[in-house]
């Protein structure tokens, strides 16, 4: 009901017509109650929506914390793997040094073998036996050197392949974790915007309810006597 268009009839002895005043009060009270009920329903819906948004925000926050912990765990695991790789590289250097030392020993034995070959025709049976032993030592040294070198290369190939697989798995997992974090940040931004919209809607509802708390009665119309 539009309060500005409602007019009271005047009584014979001045003032308002009682029935008009009662009718106005009844209509005004009914409309006020209807508006209040509507606003209360809207307010309840806003509270439910806000509660759902808070639950979603809490769930996303928990997911972000879990992803952050997983990211930290993967970073620590990667650091440990890199330390193991460095240790393996140090062992490889040690093996390479030992292989060089074996080659040097073999190089030192080769002149002796040549000398034994030169005097073989003139040496006695003891010298021939010594020469045979030298050749055997030389052959064994070559065999051990080749075996160590082959084992070292095979071990390095296997370790490099395992490290490449691990690094690929870690990079893929980190990529998925970063993508999930970015997606979660976008969802949190959307929720913040929705909170702002709901806050503005709640403020409008409060202002409407405050406006309904105090309707003012219209001014009485002048009587015929007062107009003369």
Task: Describe this structure as you would to a colleague.
With 228 residues, this protein is mostly helical. 85% of the residues lie in helices and 0% in strands. The chain has 3 helices and no strands. The protein is rod-shaped, with a radius of gyration of 49 Å.
Structure keywords:
3 helices; 228 residues; mainly alpha; single chain
Distance between the terminal alpha carbons, to the nearest Å?
32 Å
The portion of residues assigned to helices is over 70%
Which regions have little confidence, pLDDT < 50, spanning 5+ residues? none
Give the biggest sheet.
Answer: none
Number of helices: 3
Average pLDDT figure: 77
Rg calc:
49 Å
Strand content: under 5%
Structural class estimated from helices and strands: mainly alpha
> What's the order of the H and E elements?
HHH
**Morphology call:** rod-shaped
**SS elements, strand count:** 0
């Amino acid at each position: 009901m539009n309060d500005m268009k409602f007019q009271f009839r005047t009584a014979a002895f001045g003032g308002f017509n009682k029935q008009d005043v009662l009718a106005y009060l009844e209509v005004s009270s009914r409309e006020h109650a209807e508006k209040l009920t509507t606003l209360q329903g809207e307010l309840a819906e806003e509270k439910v929506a806000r509660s759902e948004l808070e639950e979603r925000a809490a769930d996303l926050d928990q997911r972000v914390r879990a992803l952050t912990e997983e990211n930290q765990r993967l970073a620590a695991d990667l650091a440990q793997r890199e330390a193991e790789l460095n240790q393996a590289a140090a062992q490889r250097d040690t093996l390479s040094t030992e292989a060089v030392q074996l080659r040097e020993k073999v190089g030192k034995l080769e002149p002796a073998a040549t000398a034994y070959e030169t005097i073989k025709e003139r040496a006695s049976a003891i010298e021939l036996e010594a020469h045979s032993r030298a050749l055997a030592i030389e052959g064994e040294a070559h065999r051990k050197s080749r075996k160590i070198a082959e084992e070292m290369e095979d071990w390095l190939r296997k370790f490099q392949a395992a490290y490449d697989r691990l690094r690929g798995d870690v990079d893929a997992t980190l990529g998925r974790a970063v993508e999930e974090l970015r997606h979660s940040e976008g969802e949190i931004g959307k929720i913040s915007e929705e909170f702002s919209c709901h806050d503005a809607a709640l403020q409008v509802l409060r202002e409407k309810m405050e406006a309904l708390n105090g309707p003012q009665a219209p001014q009485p119309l002048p009587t015929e006597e007062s107009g003369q």
